[in-house]
């Protein structure tokens, strides 16, 4: 090979653009390979000592037929729903099912609504990776439960005889244990060592029971015992508290102070149990406006009129006396740094924006205390903690419909319309909860907790709160879904085992590799050097396609793999069209450069039109077909788009890099006999 040939092959100035394109193709190929084989690369990097840089790994998202799982088909019974509202009702049911499936932790569930030939609404649920199909069926198949609840101010907690005996026996054993520990201490046992060994307070056990310096107002259960115990001594009797038996040791004292303050709280959307309807910026603007108005004389009136803290609002924001550490850090740091009579600037905490008025402070004594805690059981330990809400008789069966409407300012709100009995119950509930919250729960999840301004009669109500349009539409679907009396019935159940799914993956990969090897062999035999280049381009195509499938991410199914394999054939088909046109031009005596140019320009219309028709079919399948065909359509669509890039850009660039004079001497590498120009 001559020096001039080598120069043309390897010097960037000779084929500048082609070489730069080649470098970019190599970079894309390496990036695609790292994405596709990231797990194997990281494993190899660790084996050789970890000096290679790590890359983020992304798994393929496998569908039901590959990962295993369950496919459920439900019928939605909308016979009792007006014709105009049926679509919205079924959409509401679908959203409720999606929420329940998400609770189960299913990976990428698919929930689709279809219409059967007889007009019935069907809901298809695909649960990839689910292990217990019966649990999924039980969770999904429950009738969506819509409930209206009111504040639970006086919870009634009654134990059965068996539960009472369980609690009594447990507490007797706990007292015996605490008495034995106290006896060991009196006999000379080390307090810290005994606390590490026996205390059931996980937060202090490892520290020998140390609570540090405490304000007794925060520990009323042990306050009397601490005050009557000398320094460096421990209580000689067990201290009974609500949660267990205590043995306390007083180690030191120090002077401190308590503050008395009131506050105005303005919460905003996104904070739990906040129904102000304000955004964060709107809440800040409102608290800043209140700061301009606030004085020591009118602070309580402003709190009653504006504060969103239901616990202190009726008392003018009064918080009473509290010690260091009793409030959240941001609030605590601010109030203890203020002077008496001062009103703070807005303070942001997890509850919203606060305006603080410091009313007084006083000196107190803090005690350095250690303790040994032995737990006893109470009613809450047996029955669970009391709920802040209690059920009313009003539920989804009494809601006729929910709909979206707009207030006078154009903001969306939700209109509720009850049945006759539901209207009467709703009137009674709102009548006894004026200036209080009534909560709306769907499947035991709080949807909204608006404050009742007045008794509502007539069977209609409005939930407002500066919702976005999307939030309001979602809530209407939830409420209508919960209002269906018997929304879904299981029609069909199919289970795919994980073993069968893995076999499908293995068989599909084997078939794909065999097919790829056959077409690669054909391309090399038929087109020789261009065939080799086409196989290289096909490798680039495969890596780019699979990396896009991972990053998108595309949920891979058997049909999706079929779409990818078909797109491989279409990628080669484009190369075949180009090469045949190119060989024809070479046979008529054209130079390699002219043949490549003519081959691509003459083959492009056929490639474009064929792929364009395929893209249209894929879009139609994605829009109107079932999930099985959608997987096929998505992978085929992406494959066609990427194949057009590799055929037109990658293959063409490879051909441009072939030295013309060298190829003229080795014409057999193209497989065509050159005819004379005449």
Task: Note down, in words, how this protein is organized.
There is one protein chain. The chain starts with a helix and ends in a 13-residue tail after the last helix. α5 (86-104) runs antiparallel to α6, α5 crosses α16 and α17 (498-527) packs parallel to α19. The strands form five sheets. Strands 6, 7, 8, 9, 10, 11 and 12 form a seven-stranded antiparallel β-sheet that branches. Among the domains are: 161-256, Roll (Chitinase A, domain 3); 498-669, Multidrug efflux transporter AcrB transmembrane domain (Multidrug efflux transporter AcrB transmembrane fold, Up-down Bundle). It is an alpha+beta fold and 678 residues long. The radius of gyration is 37 Å and the shape is elongated. A hairpin with a 3-residue loop joins β8 and β9. It contains 22 helices and 20 strands. Helices cover 49% and strands 21% of the residues.
The assigned CATH architecture of the domain at 498-669 is: Up-down Bundle
- β-strand percent reads 15-25%
Terminal residue distance: 31 Å
Class of secondary structure makeup = alpha+beta
| Overall geometry | elongated
Low-pLDDT stretches are 1-14, 674-678
Question: What is the CATH topology classification name of the domain at 498-669?
Answer: Multidrug efflux transporter AcrB transmembrane fold
Number of discrete helical segments = 22
Just give the CATH class of the domain at 498-669: Mainly Alpha
CATH superfamily of the domain at 498-669: Multidrug efflux transporter AcrB transmembrane domain
Q: What is the gyration radius calculated from CA atoms?
A: 37 Å
Number of strands: 20
Describe the largest sheet: 7 strands, antiparallel
Mean pLDDT across residues: 81
Helix content: 40-55%
């Amino acid at each position: 090979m001559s020096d001039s040939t080598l120069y043309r092959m390897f010097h960037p100035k000779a084929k500048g653009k082609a070489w730069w394109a080649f470098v970019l193709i190599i970079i894309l190929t390496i990036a695609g390979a790292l994405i596709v084989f990231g797990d194997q690369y990281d494993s190899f990097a660790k084996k050789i000592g970890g000096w290679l840089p790590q890359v983020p790994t992304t798994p393929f998202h496998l569908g039901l037929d590959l990962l295993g799982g369950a496919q459920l088909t439900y019928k939605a019974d909308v016979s009792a729903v007006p014709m105009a509202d049926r679509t919205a009702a079924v959409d509401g049911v679908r959203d409720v099912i999606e929420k329940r499936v998400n609770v189960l932790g299913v990976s990428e569930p698919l929930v689709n609504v279809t219409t059967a030939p007889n007009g019935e609404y069907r809901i298809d649920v695909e649960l990839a990776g689910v292990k217990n199909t019966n649990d999924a069926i039980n969770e999904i198949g429950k009738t969506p439960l819509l409930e209206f609840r009111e504040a639970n101010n006086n919870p009634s907690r009654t134990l059965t005889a068996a539960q009472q005996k369980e609690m009594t026996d447990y507490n007797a054993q706990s007292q015996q244990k605490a008495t034995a520990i106290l006896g060991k201490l009196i006999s000379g046992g080390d307090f810290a060592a005994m606390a590490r060994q026996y205390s059931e307070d996980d937060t202090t056990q490892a520290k020998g029971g140390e609570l540090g310096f405490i304000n007794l107002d925060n520990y009323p259960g042990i306050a009397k015992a601490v005050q009557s115990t000398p320094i460096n001594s421990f209580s000689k009797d067990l201290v009974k508290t609500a949660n267990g038996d205590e043995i306390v040791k007083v180690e030191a004292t120090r002077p401190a102070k308590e503050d008395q303050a009131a506050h105005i709280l303005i919460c905003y959307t996104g904070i739990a149990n906040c129904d102000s309807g304000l955004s964060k910026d709107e809440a800040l603007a409102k608290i800043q406006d209140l700061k301009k108005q606030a004085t020591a004389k009118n602070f309580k009136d402003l709190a009653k009129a504006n504060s969103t803290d239901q616990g202190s609002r009726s008392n003018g924001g009064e918080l009473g006396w509290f010690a260091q550490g009793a409030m959240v850090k941001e609030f605590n740091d601010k109030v203890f740094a203020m002077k008496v009579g001062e009103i703070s600037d807005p303070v942001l905490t997890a509850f919203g924006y606060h305006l603080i008025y410091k009313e007084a402070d006083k000196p107190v004594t803090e005690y350095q205390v250690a303790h040994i805690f032995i737990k006893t059981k109470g009613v809450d330990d047996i029955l669970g903690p009391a709920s802040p809400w209690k059920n009313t008789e009003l539920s989804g069966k009494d809601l006729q419909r929910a709909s979206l409407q707009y207030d006078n300012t154009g903001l969306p709100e939700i209109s509720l319309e009850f049945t006759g009995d539901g209207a009467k119950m709703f009137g009674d509930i709102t009548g006894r909860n004026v200036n209080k919250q009534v909560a709306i729960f769907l499947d035991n999840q709080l949807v909204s907790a608006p404050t009742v301004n007045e008794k509502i009669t007539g069977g209609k109500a409005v939930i407002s709160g500066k919702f976005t349009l999307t939030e309001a539409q979602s809530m209407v679907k939830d409420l209508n879904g919960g209002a269906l009396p018997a929304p879904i019935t299981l029609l069909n159940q199919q289970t795919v085992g994980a073993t069968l799914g893995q076999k499908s993956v293995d068989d599909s990969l084997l078939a794909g590799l065999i097919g790829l090897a056959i077409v690669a062999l054909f391309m090399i035999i038929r087109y020789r050097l261009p065939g080799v280049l086409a196989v290289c381009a096909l490798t680039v195509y495969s890596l780019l396609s699979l990396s896009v499938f991972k990053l998108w991410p595309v949920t891979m199914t058997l049909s999706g793999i079929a779409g990818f394999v078909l797109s491989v054939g279409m990628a080669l088909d484009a190369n075949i069209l180009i090469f045949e046109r190119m060989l024809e031009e070479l046979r008529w005596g054209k130079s390699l450069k002219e043949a490549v140019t003519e081959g691509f320009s003459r083959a492009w219309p056929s490639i474009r039109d064929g792929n364009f028709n395929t893209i249209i079919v894929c879009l139609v399948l994605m829009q109107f077909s079932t999930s099985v065909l959608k997987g096929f359509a998505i992978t085929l669509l992406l494959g066609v788009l990427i194949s057009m890039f590799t055929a037109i850009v990658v293959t063409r660039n490879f051909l441009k890099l072939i030295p013309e004079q060298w190829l003229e001497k080795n014409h057999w590498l193209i497989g065509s006999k050159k005819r004379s120009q005449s």
